[in-house]
Specification:
648 residues; alpha/beta; 8-stranded mixed sheet; 7-stranded mixed sheet; binds adenosine-5'-triphosphate; binds magnesium ion
Length: 648
């Protein structure tokens, strides 16, 4: 294993942070020794209509699971995100909206304005027959109205189900059907990278097969031509005009559902993850404050789409519950050019920037030129989420984007976890590129072998969480049995994440990818992420994905898919260099047996590599590729099959 460098916490950050290293150690220990006491105190960070007296009621059984937090308290998520700030922040900016086209004007929406619009929409939804507990699907571009729609649902106790605006009519329909939504909120068209996306038309197609839907509410974004269904269709602005702006927030029990969100589908059929109100708000607001070291008045930009959990927790609920200014960006990183993100940072004086490794790698490919045209002086903290970040991309993010000054928080979590679980804290945790480092307060990560034996010390295993945390999902909508089966039956008494991880001598966690992706080569367990990180060190390589395939001698062989930088030639000499770089960086055991040069990788719409498909191709078993409906570009699969290396 190559020597790992450590980046100490910058003194200036530690001095001003909410949490420094001694405080982290102390608070973490408290949270583990006395979870009830710890959460009784921190549960008070949100506004409760009726304070809770009961903190935690959790049972992780092999065939019976229930999870309740703060369960006799009452609150409201929209009240926490808006109303509680009105006395002192009415005119402060809640949302900065940056449109797709930089020539169009940005919008600044104050907490007062957000209050008025959310209240009107909430009354409008009531008028359309939506009540407490009813589901509303939201299929929107990245415009402020997406957040308004979520908050309006929360205000009246309706359960939102946001469906990513890049999904097809079929994917939308199956999610509306599963949630049995009464209303769909959409826009006429979305805009991304200068391209129009026919959201209303897609909605019309989807709703044709969704008998539960009684009304469709449409935001006029582009003014493009759409079809209209009288009696069913309503303009968003007309719904607002007709409604009163007086809508008191519904008193919700802590355990009333707040939303359903479908997972991104990297590993199979998406699951309708259900989150509830009180614990989710405590967890997301608390992680937003501590993990990003958010201080009052800072501008926070999470580049995720609201269609993913990252957008729910760190564009909408976490930041707004803390009274932060949150940026909603409609566009993409490379339109109109590769400086776009850095220009947005300068324009809106962004202090905290949170993005995904896939975006960092894509921008890194463009070189330093587009970055160095901008100042990025406002930046203080950088974050990443979604996949393991390869150390080379980490260093580029740190040195080039953050000019070596900004701590990077590599945050590991899942749709299911509601918020961040394993992460550095900027003022407390020395960083190691590629490691998500240490658990957040109250989180007990454990590693187990395939038989469920608890593994101690520096080792590698299946990542489980030994006890509940407030933001944990409560069930799969409509299928509690699948919930128990998927997450609790494998290792009874623990939540199984599905991910593999390594823990080093310092207790730092290194997520190695899905357990299904952990390789066992001649008895040595290795994460695909480690081999991929070695491959992308080669300067001709843009991206790599590694999977295992059955191998007569070694048990599993290593199959690498490699995407070269534009203009590079696919030669046997290069193939050998790639094998050698893995040997040099990790060891002879990590040498790929087969290297396929590819033009693209199968990715989900959230930008994650679907290794499940790559594995099938490597196994020469491409008949059963499974659910590919969440792929961004299904076309790449044919190309990969065509050029596979393992022909039998
Ligand atoms: P599905 O569960 O439907 O297959 P998904 O797991 O891709 O979809 P998400 O909940 O969006 O859906 O992703 C969570 C997963 O992303 C984690 O289980 C982990 O594999 C990966 N991940 C997230 N953050 C990190 C990180 N910082 N480091 C490594 N992996 C990460
Ligand atoms: Mg998952």
């Amino acid at each position: 294993m190559s020597q790992v460098e450590t980046y100490p916490v910058p003194q200036q950050i530690a001095d001003n942070a909410w949490v420094d290293e001694p405080k982290y150690n102390k608070m973490y220990q408290q949270s583990i020794d006395d979870p009830e006491g710890f959460w009784a105190e921190h549960g008070k960070r949100i506004h409760w209509f009726k304070p809770f007296t009961q903190v935690k009621d959790v049972h992780f059984g092999a065939d019976d699971v229930h999870i309740r937090w703060f369960y006799d308290g009452t609150t409201n998520a929209a009240y926490n995100c808006i109303d509680q700030h009105l006395p002192h922040k009415k005119d402060d900016t809640a949302i900065i909206w940056e449109p797709d086209d930089p020539r169009e004007n940005a919008r600044h929406i104050s907490f007062g304005e957000l209050h008025e619009e959310v209240s009107r929409l909430a009354n409008g939804l009531k008028a359309l027959g939506v009540g407490k507990g009813d589901r509303v699907s939201i299929y929107m571009p990245m415009i402020p109205e997406a957040a308004t729609a979520m908050l309006a649902c929360a205000r009246i106790g309706a359960v939102h189900s946001v469906v990513f605006g890049g999904f097809s009519p079929d994917s939308l329909a199956s999610r509306i059907q599963d949630a049995e939504a009464k209303v769909v909120i959409t826009a006429d068209e979305g805009l991304r990278g200068g391209r129009k996306i026919p959201l209303k038309q897609n909605t019309d197609e989807a709703v044709a097969n969704c008998p539960s839907v009684q009304a469709v509410v449409t935001v006029k974004r582009t003014g493009g031509g759409i079809q209209w269904h009288d009696g069913r269709d309503h303009w968003y602005h007309e719904v607002l005009e007709k409604a009163s702006s007086d809508c008191p927030a519904e008193e919700m029990s802590a355990e009333d559902p707040l939303f359903i969100l479908y997972t991104s589908g990297s590993t199979g059929k998406p699951k309708g993850v259900l989150h509830t109100t009180g614990g989710y708000l405590v967890h997301t607001s608390m992680t937003h404050q501590y993990v990003f070291d958010y201080h009052d008045g800072e501008v926070f930009w999470c580049t995720a789409d609201v269609g993913w959990i990252t957008g729910h927790s760190y564009i909408v609920y976490g930041p707004l519950a803390n009274g932060a200014t949150t940026v909603i960006f409609e566009g993409v990183p490379n339109y109109p050019n590769a400086s776009r993100h850095w220009e947005v940072i300068d324009k809106h004086k962004v202090n905290i920037y949170y993005t995904a490794p896939t975006a960092i790698r894509a921008l890194m490919r463009e070189g330093n030129g587009p970055v160095e045209k901008t100042s990025r002086d406002s930046l203080r903290i950088l974050g990443t989420v979604g996949e393991p970040i390869n150390p080379e991309a980490w260093r580029w993010y740190h040195e080039v984007i953050g000019k070596g000054k900004c701590p990077i928080v590599d945050t590991w979590w899942q749709t299911e976890t509601g918020g961040i679980l394993i992460t550095p804290l900027p003022g407390a945790t020395p960083a190691k590129p590629g490691s998500a480092t240490l658990p957040f307060f109250g989180v007990k990560p454990v590693l187990v072998d395939n038989e469920g034996n608890h593994l101690e010390g520096a080792t590698h295993g299946n990542l489980c969480i030994a006890d509940s945390w407030p933001g944990q999902m409560r069930t799969i909508h409509g299928d509690h049995e699948r919930f128990v089966q998927t997450y609790f039956s494998m290792y009874p008494g623990r939540y199984f994440t599905g991910d593999g991880a390594r823990r080093d001598e310092d207790g730092y966690f290194w997520i190695t990818g899905r357990v299904d992706d952990v390789l066992n080569v001649s008895g040595h367990r290795m994460g695909t992420a480690e081999i991929e990180s070695a491959l992308v060190l080669h300067d001709k390589v843009a991206e790599a994905a590694v999977v295992g395939y059955p191998h007569d001698l070694k048990g599993q062989g290593i199959y690498a898919y490699v995407i070269l930088n534009a203009g590079e030639e696919e030669t046997e000499a290069l193939r050998k260099e790639l094998v050698d770089i893995c040997k040099k960086e990790i060891g002879p055991i990590a040498k790929p047996d087969l290297v396929q040069f590819a033009s693209g990788l199968p990715k989900t719409r959230s930008g994650k590599i679907m290794r499940r498909i790559l594995r099938k191709i490597a196994e020469d078993d491409y008949s059963s590729l499974g659910d590919t409906s969440t792929l961004a570009d299904p076309g790449v699969v044919d190309d990969l099959i065509e050029n596979r290396q393992n022909r039998s």
